[in-house]
Amino acid sequence: MSRKANFGWILGLVLGLASIARPVSAAPLTVGYSDWPGWVAWQVAIDKGWIKEAGLDLTFQWFDYSASMDAFSAGKLDANLMTNGDTLVTGAGGGKGIMVMLTDYSNGNDMIVAKPGIKSLKDLKGKKIGIEVGLVEHLLLLHGLQGAGMKEKDVKLVNAKTNETPQVLASGQVSAIGAWQPVSGQAMKGAPGSRPIYTSSQAPGLIYDVLAVSPASLNARRADWMKLIGVWDKVVHYINDPATQDDAVKIMAARVELTPDVFKPLLQGTHLIDVAEGKKTFVKASGLTSLYGSTKIADEFNVSNDVYKKAQDVNSYIDPSLTNAQ
Fold first, then answer.
1. 61: burial class by Cβ within 10 Å (0-12, 13-18, 19+)?
2. What secondary structure does DSSP assign to 195-250, as a single string?
3. Taking phi first (over 0 means left), then psi (-120 to 50 degrees means alpha), and beta for anything else, what does residue 120 get?
4. Once rounded to an integer, what is the mean pLDDT over residues 19-25?
5. In this predicted structure, what is the pLDDT of residue 134?
6. E strands within 24-168?
């Protein structure tokens, strides 16, 4: 072996060991986000430079929602923006996420849309509903049926991908569909006269949206995740302030390739949660005003619909301490 070759081998070994010894804290953090108003809101912080301003080495990566869950489960992201119920789904599949902050709850953007002539959920008795079984609109429907004194067996579910529900409703195959915006809006355009008969505004807190962080990243970079929560509080106030809301809406609309006037109503169907409200929602309680209570309901729904087999330990998925420390 020549001296040159020997040096190269030694250098490679040294660099390899250095790579192994590199602390997790030196790597940029990655967060997955997708097309939901409460998550698109992060674009304000990105475009304004508030993340770097907070001293964070962090990037947001854009995904289709289900793909973001897959990436997080595969360990390709440090954190992901998901619903509380879907955080349980990824965790049951081996990709555990800890909910450290809330971004929002759905306040009308998730809905059951019915064809003309149907005015309430009770009118759907014995009729077909197009819905993606096991996802949040299914949960919304069951909650609504319960309030109307009905059960799932009183209707006929037709399993359909959420993004296909506009075509399903327009075809006349079903009397109603379940979808979230903008898909539900497309359904109403495709079936003139159709309208929402039950929305998430009638069940605030049923669907919370959260930042879920991998346990390894949370342990290694706790201080950084606390900083990000502080940035989120700034985002919410900027969006809600009448003096700056138009600028925020312009930024968010551009991210999803909509005009501001089309995007703004979608924002109104999402209740953004600042740090002060987040602290209240992190208080342990039953019912929908608490993340714990809401997530317990989501867990029961997931098990009963075979989304996963074993009930999850809800408490182990929630860490309020970072929000409470703000």
1. middle
2. EEEEEGGGSTTSSEEEEEE-HHHHHHSHHHHHHHHHHHHHHHHHHH-TTTHHHHHH
3. beta
4. 41
5. 86
6. 29-33, 58-62, 79-83, 98-106, 110-114, 128-131, 156-159
The answer for residues whose C-beta is within 8 angstroms of residue 319's C-beta and 6 or more apart is 98, 99, 100, 218
Side-chain-side CA neighbours of 21 within 13 Å: the count stands at: 6
* pTM of the model as a whole: 0.86
Stated as kind and residue range, the H or E segment containing 177 is strand 176-180
- Alpha-carbon distances, residue 13 vs 17, 21, 22, 98, 325 (angstroms): 6, 12, 14, 36, 43
Across residues 112-139, what is the average pLDDT? 95
pLDDT at 6: 38
122-135 confidence digits (pLDDT tens): 999 999 999 999 88
pLDDT class for 25, splitting at 50, 70, 90? low
Q: How many Cα atoms sit within 13 Å of 200 on the Cβ side?
A: 30
Establish how many alpha carbons lie within 13 A of residue 162's alpha carbon, considering only the half-sphere containing its beta carbon: 20
C-beta atoms surrounding 97 within 10 Å? 27
Q: How far apart are CA 22 and CA 261, in angstroms?
A: 48
Burial label for 22, CB within 10 Å (0-12, 13-18, 19+), is exposed
| pLDDT of 87 above 60 | yes
Is 221 buried (19+), middle (13-18) or exposed (0-12) by CB count in 10 A? buried
Q: Please tell me whether residue 156 adopts helix, strand or coil conformation.
A: strand
Q: Which of 200, 227, 224, 228 is nearest to 103 (CA)?
A: 228
Residue among 246, 211, 280 at smallest CA distance from 42: 211
For 248, the token pair is 């925020």
Q: Would strands 270-272 and 98-106 be described as parallel, antiparallel, or unpaired?
A: antiparallel
Q: How would you classify the pairing of strands 110-114 and 176-180? A: antiparallel
Cis peptide before 182 (omega within 30 of 0): yes
The rounded distance, in Å, linking the Cα atoms of 66 and 35 is 11
